[in-house]
Amino acid sequence: ARTRQGASLVSISATSDATIAQINSDALTDLMISSEPIRNWGNGVLRDALSQKADREWCLAALGGADRLAWFRETYPGFENRFTHTLIASFLGMTPVTLSRLRADDKRT
After folding, report:
1. In which band, very low, low, confident or very high, does the pLDDT at 3 lie, cut at 50, 70 and 90?
2. Which of 61, 59, 57 is nearest to 69 (CA)?
3. Rounded to 10 degrees, what is the CA torsion of 105, 86, 65, 49?
4. DSSP 69-82
C-alpha cells in the first residue's frame, strides 16, 4: 500500500482467505531491468491498474448515482453480494444511504 511518512494511505480488508506478498520497489525495479518476462509482467500489472483507475475516475466524474451502481454491477459482477454496502458506497463516491435508496429503487422496478 502507498504510504506517506510511514502512514498508510490505503486501507485493505480481506473478505476471504488471502496471501499477501511484499517486495522492495528497488529490488523489483532491478528485476524488471534484468529480466524481460518480469518487465513485461510488471508493465502489464501497471497498465491494468491504470486502466481500472481511469475507468473508475471517469465513472465518478461523469455518471449519476444510479448509473454508477449499474457500472459497478457490470464491471464487478457478484461483488455486490460479497462486500459490505458501506465499502461499495465509498468506492462509488456516495453515502451508504444513497446506495440503499438506489438499491431499493431497483427492486421496485
Report:
1. low
2. 59
3. -140
4. HHHHHHHSTTHHHH
pTM (2 d.p.): 0.65
Taking the C-alpha atoms of residue 72 and residue 67, their distance in angstroms, rounded to an integer, is 9
Please report where in the chains the cell 454508477 appears, as a residue: 68
- In the chain, % of residues over pLDDT 70: 94
- Judged by phi (left if over 0) then psi (alpha if -120 to 50, else beta), residue 5 lies in left
Q: How far apart are CA 29 and CA 33, in angstroms?
A: 6
With contact defined as beta carbons under 8 Å apart, do 80 and 73 qualify? yes
Which of 90, 96, 99 has its CA nearest to residue 11?
90
Taking only the tens place, the pLDDT of each residue in 68-109 is 999 999 999 999 998 999 999 999 999 999 999 999 988 876
